[in-house]
């Protein structure tokens, strides 16, 4: 059984398992450590405010007071890491580190939630924690320790509850255990509530969403990269393997053709050679759809010319780029063109296609325009949908304009890093 | 060794050749074809460095080289070919490529003028007779460009450049010239008389800014290919 990922899950779980887990101790550690943090923060705050007010006539004082949000920000940083003890999630990485704040102090907006939290911590939270720890831990602790205390001659006197004989002391152990169990639950509940409050103030949901989104974007780019690497590998394997063997095969058949006299044997050899050539051409056209060698060697312009020449529709290519682009962008650009052309050939019944590509204002703009029947759309799972994903993974935009009756324009725009 | 071949069906002028191709399978296939045709393969090497070393101190007729070779697998062969041409302007160079790339064609045609130049797709080698014929023509100083490359350049628009002044028919004739065809063969391909082809060729020569000192047919083809 794995440890529940956060304290709330643990609290909702089975009682005995919870008591045997590390959660109550973590909660204790959290509450106990609240006190020094709060008192330390309070001391620094009081000192700063005091000295700041006293020296306010001088510029120093004003500067000190202006530094209060910075103190709050340090407190917030400490609290965010303490929070992980219970909630187990790392704070968003785009929360501003205090060093950056120090540098950009004048231009930074004051983080009011952090200031508010610091006040709450130094004034209220630690007091609550001290009281709760006393009630929920000390009381059951005393009951449990009653036999020892009574024997040592220290009878217990807690208002209506008096324990002064050994029998009473031993009787107190049972309720003590129950109270301890309840107390640990209480401690954990309080710690959980406090950590959640901390998170609400210091790490609000929208910040977490932004972080999750950034993470998602990173992982999507990673996926596209991995995908691209894989395609290159397949292309390399095909080029160095099957493709080369087929070329060698046509050579051997060509040699055989020289040696065999006219007749049925020669006819068969010629037929075999034709078949080998067809296989080679089919393999080439597959590779063209994966990651053609010319793209690796010469970049988008050359590769687009190649795929345009191989298309069964007349294609006018007007692509002019300033040198080579980053690999993933080249791959995406090539696939926009090759997939769009494939679509045109399959569905558009077009008489001609224009491919246009330029880099302008730091963005690569590619368009594939055909004079076909139109009605193309980015269906899920289709080739165009795949293109949209790839382009968007590079922070680009992908659009298909295709009214019924045509013309169809496929347009991809991508920032050039 | 001639076997069942009738004399003259294969190339007859024996050539001294250095062959550079990094894939062993293809290198040996090429060597076998060349030797079968009676040529002498002085060396069959697997990278551009070795090619330059061999080609440096041997009397050669033709160098046949793959474009992509180690270490970078980009255009080592092409650069080696250009370097060889600088050192030995009369050396004929036949370049083999796995695919059509304009950059290659342009680079090749821009190399120092001199001996013959050829650019063929590797697939072409399987058609042994045609391949050997192309080789012989390159060795004889002609320019041989793969028909697929020519077809591809033909498909392009020529909105500007010297070819814009040509008629559609003249362009067709020029494209066939680029494939290395004779006037007679062009006439057959276009279903016109040889006289008509001659007329078109003359008109092409007149329209294109050609160097009168060079072979006008080759110059016209080069102009055509460069403009592609």
UniProtKB/TrEMBL annotation, chain A:
Q: Which reaction does it catalyse?
A: ATP + protein L-histidine = ADP + protein N-phospho-L-histidine
- A Pfam family for this UniProt protein? HisKA_3
Q: Domain Signal transduction histidine kinase subgroup 3 dimerisation and phosphoacceptor: where?
A: 230-295
Task: Fetch the InterPro entries from UniProt.
Answer: HATPase_C_sf (IPR036890), Put_sensor_dom (IPR025828), Sensor_HK_TwoCompSys (IPR050482), Sig_transdc_His_kin_sub3_dim/P (IPR011712)
Query: Which superkingdom heads the taxonomic lineage of this protein's source?
Result: Bacteria
Transmembrane annotation, as ranges: 27-47, 53-78, 116-149, 169-192
Q: Which residues form the Putative sensor domain?
A: 30-202
Q: What is its EC number?
A: 2.7.13.3
**UniProt protein name:** histidine kinase
Origin organism of this chain?
Promicromonospora iranensis
TrEMBL record, chain B:
Q: Which Pfam families match?
A: GerE, Response_reg
What GO annotations for molecular function exist for this entry? DNA binding
Q: Does the keyword Transport apply?
A: no
Family matches, as Gene3D superfamilies: 3.40.50.2300
The residue ranges of the HTH luxR-type domain are 159-228
InterPro entries this protein is in? CheY-like_superfamily, NreC/VraR/RcsB-like_REC, Sig_transdc_resp-reg_receiver, Tscrpt_reg_LuxR_C, WalR-like
Record domain Response regulatory: where: 16-137
Q: Which SMART domains match?
A: HTH_LUXR, REC
Q: Tell me yes or no: is Repeat among this UniProt entry's keywords.
A: no
PROSITE patterns given in the database record: HTH_LUXR_2, RESPONSE_REGULATORY
Q: What keywords is this UniProt entry annotated with?
A: DNA-binding, Phosphoprotein, Transcription, Transcription regulation
| Residues modified to 4-aspartylphosphate | 66
Q: Which PANTHER family match?
A: TRANSCRIPTIONAL REGULATORY PROTEIN NARL-RELATED, TWO-COMPONENT RESPONSE REGULATOR
Q: What is this protein called?
A: DNA-binding NarL/FixJ family response regulator
